[in-house]
Amino acid sequence: MAAPLLANLSESLGSPEPAVRLMLSILIGYPCALVYRKYLFYQTATVINLFHAISGLALAAFNFGPQIYHSAVCVLVQFLMMRLMGRTITTVLSSFTFQMVYLLAGYYCTATEEYDIKWTMPHCVLTLKLVGLSFDYYDGGKEPSQLSEEQKKAALPSVPSLLEVCGFSYFYGGFLVGPQFTLRSYQKLLAGELTDSPGKPPNSVTPAMKRFALGFLCLTIYTIFSPYYPDSYFLTDEYEAQPFWYRCVFVLIWAKVILYKYVSCWVIAEGVCILSGLGYNGVVDGEHRWDACANMKVWVFETAPLFGGTISSFNINTNAWVARHVFKRLKFLGNKTLSHVTTLLFLTVWHGLHSGYLLCFSMEFFIITVERQALALVKDSPLLTKLANSPLYPLIYLVQQFFHWLFMGYPLVPFCLFTFDKWLKVYSSIYFCGHVFFLVAYLAMPHLRKALVPKKERSEIKQD
């Protein structure tokens, strides 16, 4: 009965059935959270964990059928490693190796040249969750003086039970598309601590509905406009026959539209976390905050004229996970740039085995490097500083936004098209303009600094 209904629904929406199943599953998180609030908030941790594990497994089965065994195997192996190996670096390395190899093997065995919703999609979220769990368990055995403040918050004082790991892994608010959260946060949820009303369910319905409404708006925008800006158009003769300016503008608009696919899922899922209480983030300036599970800063994402601002507002919890468990733990390398490159390489591999991911993240690194140099130049140059603060700034802002989104879309092309032959065809049609622009900017930056920064100030900067 359900299959024909889903087929009809997907046909009427013009979306693939797996995408419809995924979105329905994210939305089902809201009634699940309401059940938890009304009937389970005062129950024991065992009962709540059972509810989270069973509901999450049901959603996984609804989307991926018998392939849910992949996640079950990884959860069980993770638990056994912590239980049998203890708080050792061997546990961390074994967890990292096993979970990443399993994920990459899944990518290899299921790879196609299209973006498919299959079991590897939630599994990449689960991989980070389980690897992070091993790090947090390991940190729990260290002296507090050896840990950073964020490590102290996440460190586990004891090994969790298998049921607790299952509830944490399959929690309906984060299993399918994220966000990332720590087991310590999840334990606080079980204990009823994540609430603005001690001893009572949180007053989070209104903030949750606000995120749902915003996510639904983003989903509506994507649903309406995505048919007009499909990835496949890049590979058509019609696109190649268009004027150069049109091809570039298409990249810009396509990037804005395609990203709403991710924004909508994350913001709607965040609403589920807020409704359950997991999104509670304490009191700041006398106001209760509900952004602990925020994966998007939508206003910053829409208005920031800088690449760094957009990147920092996008997939926030995953970026925070990578910063905490990869970038900051590479401090022993003694080189921030090397740590940054290694972190981006990890993100590349975590996303998949296609060449497009490597090109996307390498381009991101290059763009951010040039942008930082440009910002430093504006700061150090009296002329550019004056111009940036002049009445002309609104015009400058519009120009910034145009180039910003054009070159945000530029690395997204290989990210979404995956394979070498596809992204090479598109890049050739726009003459590798992104590479040329940022390479020229990078080479020109020292000369611009000489021309625009007074000699005295250049000397002071060198001394600093």
**How is the biggest beta sheet arranged?**
2 strands, antiparallel
Large-scale geometry: globular
Query: How does the helix and strand content classify structurally?
Result: mainly alpha
Unreliable residue runs = none
Query: For the terminal residues, how far apart are their CA atoms?
Result: 71 Å
Order of helices and strands: HHHHHHHHHHHHEEHHHHHHHHHH
Give the neighbour order of strands across the main sheet.
1-2
How many strands in all? Answer: 2
Rounded to an integer in angstroms, the radius of gyration calculated over CA atoms is 24 Å
Mean pLDDT figure: 93
Strand residues, percent: under 5%
What's the number of helices? Answer: 22
The helicity comes to over 70%
Family: Belongs to the membrane-bound acyltransferase family.
Membrane topology: Multi-pass membrane protein
Enzyme class: transferase
Protein name: Lysophospholipid acyltransferase 5
